[in-house]
Amino acid sequence: MLASLRSDLYLALRQLRKSPGFALTAILTLALGIGTTTAIYSLIDGVLLKPLPLPHPEQLVAIRTIEARPGQTADRIGTSYSNYLDWRDRNHSFTQLAAFVGDGRLISRANGMDGDVLPICRITANYFDTLGVQPILGRNFTPDDDQAGHHVVILGYGLWVRLFASDKKVLGTTILVSDQPFTIVGVMPKGFTEPRGNDQAELWTSFGPLLDGSAPRGKERDNGFAEIIGRLKPGITQQQARADVATIQSSLAQTYREDRYLTSVFVQSKLSDITGDIRPALFLLMAAVLAVLLIVCTNVAGLMLTRTMKRRGEIALRAALGASSWRIWHQLLIEALILGLVGGAIGIGLAYILLHTALPLIPDDIPRIGEVAINGRVLAFTAAISVLCSILSSLVPAWKLTRVSPIESLREQSHSTTGRRSHSFQNTLVIAQTALGFALLLAAGLLIRGFLNVRHAKLGFQSDHLLRFLIPLTNARYPDPKKALFYKEYLPKLAAIPGVRSASGGYPTPMEGAYASAPVEIDGRPNPPGNPLSTLIGEAEPGYFETLGVPLLQGRSFTAADNDPKAPFVALVNQAFVKRYFPDENPIGRHIRPDLTLLRSLTNDLDPTIHNEREIIGVLADFQQYSVQDPPQPMAIFPYSQASMLMRPAVVLRVAGDPMQYKNPAQAALASIDPTLFVITPETMEMHLSLVSGAQRFETLLISAFASIALFLSGLGLYATLAASVASRTREIGLRMAIGADRRDVASLILFRAAALVLSGLAIGTAIALLAARSLSAAAWWRPLLFGVSWFDPSTYLTILLVLGTVSFAACLLPTWRATRVDPMRVLRDE
What's the Cα-to-Cα distance from 546 to each of 458, 501, 557, 677, 780, rounded to whole Å? Predict the structure, then answer.
C-alpha cells in the first residue's frame, strides 16, 4: 500500500514538473480562492463561532425587556434596577442574575493628575460571580456595596499597570471617578474580557452611586437603563428561562403602572446578543467568498480536464494494460491533492496578509474584532477546504476519462480531438463561472450604488470645515450652573482664534445617533392616557445651528438673552415636529411641556425646571439625526442654560482650512480657563460621517473585491476553454479554411461559441439574482445597504453586463487570433 502510494506520488510530481504552466496556474488559482476563504472564515470564527473566554459560556444568556405600546412595534429595551431585583429574587432558572450598565467617565489619580476619559462599567455585586471570574488582587464587590453611599471600584489590569505600576499596595487607596473619590478594593486578571463586544471597561464601580441623591435613578421602575446577564442552571433551556422570567414580568406589569407596557422578556445566548447585528453581514460575506471558491474549483477542474484529455492516450494505454478505474482516479486525485495542499499553504500566507491589511480598515463597532486570528481551528478549516477543492477539481475529469473506452480514447488521440463530452463539460464550467460571477458583480454593483447614495445624501447641514470635540466637565467640579458659565467664557475664546468663523455647542450633533426621547404635552393637542406624545430632545448654545449650517425656516433662533435659566423658557422645533403636531397651523408662539425626568444623565437630584412650559420661537429645517436611511423624527431643542440637567454639549467650530489644525489652539484656549481640562475625541465632521458609514463601506469593499476576483476567474475560465477548444479543433478549422472559409468566418465561429456560453451564464446568473432579491428584499438588515437603490436597478444591470461583456470579449481575443492563424496547408499535410 505504501509502496503504491509512494509510486503514485512520484508519478504525480513528475507529471506536474512536465507541465509547469498548468501547475503554477492551478496552484495560484487555488491559493487565491483558499486564501480569501480562510481570511473571511477567520473573521467569522473570531466574531461568531469562538466561545466567549469565560467558564461554561454556553450557560450565559442576555435578558431584555419587551415593550409593546398600543399601535407600535414591540421593541427590546433595557431593564430598570427595581425590575432586576424582582427577577433576581423570584426566578427559578438561574444560578446567578446580574445587572450592568456601560459608561464613560473621567478617571484620574487622587490628586487629579493623569486624567483620561475611559470606559467603565457599573455592575451589581454578583456580576463577576455570574461570569465565573474573580479579582487577582483584593476582593469582589459585596451586597453592601450595592447600597447608597458606597463608592468602591475594581481596577482593570491595564489601568492598574498604567496608573499604579502594578503596586500591590494599591488596595484601600483612592481614585477619582468624575472627580469623586472612590476606594480601590480589587484588581481584575490580565486578559480578562467582558462579554460586551469591544467596549471593554477599564474600571468597575458598584451600583451604589446610582442610589445616591434625593431622586436616585436606580429606584425608578420605569428607567430601563440596565442590561441583564444570567447564568442558567444545569439542564435549564433558554425557552424555560424565558417562560420563567416572563411570568414574573407579567406580574410586575399588572402590579405597577410604570410597567403596564412591559409585559414580557426576550432571552438569547450572550454570544448571540453581542454579535446579533453583525451576523447577517458576515454570513453575506461568507456566501460571497464561497461563490468565489466554487468558481475556483470549476476553473481548476476545467484546467485539469484539458490537461488530462491531452493524456487520454497514456491513460487509455494504462487501462488497456489492466489499470482499474479506481487506480486511474487515484492517480489524478494525488495530483489534485498536491495542487490543493500547495495552494492551501500559499493561501494561508495570503490570508495572513489580507487580515493584517484589512483589520485596520474594519470598523471598531464590529464586536470581538480583537479576537480574530489564524488559529488552529482556522488552519484545520483551510486544510479541509484544500482537500475538498482537490476532490471537487479532480472528480469530474476523472469520471469523464474512466467512462470512455480505451479504444475510443486512442482513436480520438490519433485525430487530436478531445471529444464532445469534454467540450460539453468545459462549457458547463464556463456557464457556471459566468453565472456566479454575474451574481457577485450585481451584488457588488448594488452595494456600491447604495454606499454612494449614502455618502452623497442630503444631510440637512454643511459638513465641511467643521471640528467637533467634547470637554470632561464633571459634576463634582462643575455643577450645572457652573457648566453654563464655563461655556459662556470658553466659546468666545474659541471664536477669537484666527481662522475660526464661528464657535458654539450643542447635544447631540447630527448623525450622532444618541438622541433621547421624552414625553411631551403640546398646547392644544390631546394627550392619550397612558401613551403620551413624545419628541426627541436636544440642547444648544446660541449660534449652534448657524455654525452647523442648518437653515432656520421660521421665527428666530436662540440669543444670548435666551441662554439664561431666569429668562422665559423657549424651544426650537424641526420640520418633522411641525408636520406631526402642527400640520396646518403656525407653531410660533405655541407652548410645549416636556417631561425630562428620565433624561437626567449626570445627577440623581431632580431639577425644578424639568417640567417647565416652553414657548416655540423658531422652526429649523430637518437634518439627519441617526443616519441618512432613517427619516428625521420630531425634535425639540432648548437653550443649554435652560436644560443643563441633560448631557454636556459637544463643541463645534466652523473654520477656514483643515479643521484638525485648530485642535491645539482649542486646547490652549481651554487651558487658559482650567489647566486640568482637555479636549476629548477631536474629529472633523467628515471623519465622523466616515465612521458612521464605516461598516457599510467595509462590507461594500469586501463584496466588490470578491466580485473582482470572480470577474477575473470567469474571464480566465472562458479563455482557457476557448484556447483548449481551438487547440482541439485545429484539424477542423484547417479543413474549413481549406474548402473556402476565410479568417472572418473562423473568428465568427469562435466568438459565437463564446457569446453562447456567456449569454447562458448571464441568464442563469439573472435567475440567481432574482431569487436572491426575493429572499433578501424583506430582510431589515439588507435595506440600509441598498439605500436609494432597487434590486432591479436598470443602470446597475446594464453596467454589470457591460463590464462582464468587456472582460469576456478580452478573454476571447487571443484564442480567436490563434484560430485565424491556423495554416490549412500544414493541417492537410499532417493528415
Answer: 17, 11, 9, 27, 35
Task: With 0.85 as the threshold, say if the pTM is over it.
Answer: no
Look-up: residue for cell 453654563?
484
Beta strands per DSSP E along 313-428: none
- The span from the CA of 200 to the CA of 53, in Å, is 13
Q: Can you give the pLDDT at residue 407?
A: 52
Q: Coil, strand or helix: which one is 212?
A: coil
Low-confidence ranges of the chain (pLDDT < 50): 409-410, 413-420
Amino acid at site 441:
L
Return the SS3 of 740.
Answer: coil
Distance of CA 215 to the CA centre of its chain: 39
Beta bridge partners of 205: 122, 153
Number of other CB atoms surrounding residue 78 within 10 Å: 17
Q: DSSP assignment, residue 401?
A: H
Q: What is the pLDDT of residue 824?
A: 66
Judge whether 520 and 595 are in contact, CB under 8 Å. yes
> Which pLDDT score is estimated for 428?
79
3-state SS of 179-197 is: CEEEEEEEECCCCCCCCCC
How far apart (Å, rounded) are the C-alpha atoms in residues 692 and 171? 41
* Virtual torsion, Cα 83, 212, 205, 517, nearest 10 deg: 60
Is residue 386 within 8 A of residue 34, CB to CB? The reply is: yes
Contact (Cβ atoms closer than 8 angstroms) between residue 183 and residue 172: yes
Say how far apart CA 809 and CA 807 lie, in whole Å: 5
The predicted pLDDT at position 476 comes to: 83
Residue 313: its H or E element: helix 312-320
- Between strands 152-155 and 180-187, the pairing is parallel
Residues 672, 663: Cα–Cα separation, whole Å: 15
In this structure, the number of other CB atoms found within 10 A of the CB of residue 332 comes to: 26
pLDDT at 408: 52
Q: Which residue has the cell 486578571?
A: 189
**Cα–Cα distance measured from residue 537 to residue 527, given in angstroms and rounded to the nearest whole number:** 18
Reduced to 3 states, what is the DSSP secondary structure of residue 55? Answer: coil
Angle at which helices 279-310 and 694-728 pack, to 10 degrees?
Answer: 10
Segment 39-60, tens digit of pLDDT: 888 988 888 888 999 999 999 9
Sign of the torsion formed by the C-alpha atoms of 318, 320, 323 and 325? positive
Q: What is Dmax (Cα atoms) for the chain?
A: 108
Beta strands 635-639 and 534-540: pairing type?
parallel
Q: How far is CA 250 from CA 69, 231, 260, 527, 723, in A?
A: 14, 22, 9, 26, 72
Scanning the structure block, which residue is given the C-alpha cell 425639540?
Answer: 636
Query: 798: Cβ–Cβ under 8 A, 6 or more apart, which residues?
Result: none
Q: How far apart are CA 26 and CA 296, in angstroms?
A: 9
Alpha carbon of 136 to those of 122, 160, 168, 345: distances in Å? Answer: 19, 12, 10, 41
Q: Are 644 and 481 in contact (CB under 8 A)?
A: yes
Alpha carbons 318 and 261: distance in angstroms, whole number: 79
Element (H, E) at 591: strand 591-594
- Backbone phi and psi for residue 22, each to the nearest 5 degrees, phi listed first: -60, -50
Name the nearest CA neighbour of 176 among 229, 249, 115: 115
CA dihedral 358, 362, 366, 368 (to 10 degrees): 40
The whole-angstrom separation of Cα 792 and Cα 189 is 54
Q: What is the pLDDT of residue 417?
A: 47
The span from the CA of 22 to the CA of 186, in Å, is: 64
Residue with cell 474584532: 369
Spatial separation of the C-alpha atoms in residues 89 and 97, rounded to whole Å: 9
Q: Measuring CA to CA, how many Å separate 678 from each of 109, 475, 489, 506, 673?
A: 16, 16, 16, 18, 11
Cβ-in-10-Å burial (0-12, 13-18, 19+) of 379 comes to middle
Instruction: State CA 432 to chain mean position distance.
Output: 30
